[in-house]
Design brief:
Elements lengths: L22 H15 L8 H15 L4 H9 L6 H9 L10 H17 L4 E6 L6 H12 L8 E8 L2 H9 L1 E3 L8 H7 E4 L3 E4 L1 H4 L2 E5 L12 E6 L8 H14 E9 L12 E3 L4 E4 L3
Parallel strand pairs: 1-2, 1-7, 2-6, 7-8
Antiparallel strand pairs: 3-5, 4-5, 8-10, 9-10
The structure holds S-adenosylmethionine.
């Protein structure tokens, strides 16, 4: 989605927008976000919504939420849809978050695949946010025993939010963001840039493709994947959406491949094609 290219007409704006949200506006905006991104915004997130909408209102010089929503829903506001979704998504992430996934990925997936002489590996980070997850995957892979035996290793990293994708592909992180990276990996895979910035080296970046993808829509991706990470995004969807996405993900994982979910996410009951292999780690059954 592109950023807003059309500004509201002159006279529309006001210096201090009225961001109080009526019940009607709350229902209108939450229905729109649900339809566009599948994200459920409950009543207790109202303040968060007001704060984030007010930034968009200020940026586009709108005086109130209804006028902003009229614009978003008009043909001229098409470019703002992406910005609205960007504004309401939560992008919290960190390097090596939920470390047991990376240990499992290395010991139970990468090293056995290398030992078996499998040349081609495909991994998908399906809600990659600002890049910490895919870079952690790539660093784990490039540190694993036998990595050099993979002649064709590719990592697809996707997210709905174009702002986080831009940050991810820049590969630049402040010192406080890289604290959870083990020292040996930080030294090997990052170079220092200016004051307190760390930049991911090209050897890591070169195996990752960043793309925009809405998990709610059709996925222009080719499986099968050896491994899919879909972590800390399903929590934003309602149960039927979540079930549908998990089902489509499972069908893209190869037999004996692995699906990693986020710490508070479950499969909503057993899935016939999956076997649990520890906390939020699921292995696809052999054919
Ligand atoms: C909390 S972050 C999780 C990041 C990372 N997977 C992790 O566990 O650290 C959730 C991400 O999901 C993305 N997201 C939300 N709705 C989405 C959708 N419909 N399709 C794809 N990504 C979505 C957000 O933009 C955000 O970057």
């Amino acid at each position: 989605m592109s950023s807003a290219s059309v500004m509201p007409s002159a006279g529309e704006g006001a210096s201090k927008p009225d961001t109080k949200l009526t019940q009607e506006e709350f229902e209108r905006v939450t229905a729109l976000v649900m339809a566009l991104a599948g994200i459920v915004i409950k009543e207790h997130k109202r303040e968060m919504l007001v704060a984030r909408l007010s930034r968009r209102l200020r940026a586009l010089n709108f005086s109130n939420v209804s006028a902003y929503l009229d614009f978003v829903e008009s043909p001229k506001g098409e470019g703002e849809i992406g910005e609205l979704i960007n504004a309401v998504t939560t992008n919290l992430t960190s390097f090596f978050r939920e470390g047991h996934h990376f240990e499992h990925f290395q010991k139970e997936m990468l090293e056995p695949m290398a030992a078996a002489g499998q040349p081609r590996v495909r991994v998908w980070s399906s809600a990659c946010s600002t890049g910490e997850e895919p870079y952690s995957i790539a660093m784990t892979a490039q540190s694993a025993n036998g990595y050099n035996r993979f002649s064709d290793f590719k990592l697809l990293a996707t997210d709905l939010d174009t702002n986080v994708l831009a940050k991810a592909s820049s590969g630049v992180y402040a010192t406080d963001r890289v604290k959870t990276i083990p020292t040996d990996k930080l030294g090997r895979f990052f170079r220092k840039h200016g004051d307190g910035e760390h930049v991911v080296k090209d050897e890591v970046k070169s195996i990752i493709s960043f793309r925009q993808l809405n998990l709610l829509h059709q996925w222009p991706v080719k499986g099968p994947f050896d491994v899919i990470f879909c972590r800390n995004v399903l929590i934003y969807f309602d149960a039927p959406t979540k079930r549908d996405i998990v089902d489509r993900l499972v069908r893209l994982v190869r037999p004996e491949g692995t699906l990693y979910l986020g710490h508070s996410e479950s499969l909503l009951g057993d899935h016939p094609l999956l076997v649990s292999e520890g906390k939020t780690i699921y292995r696809r059954r052999p054919e």
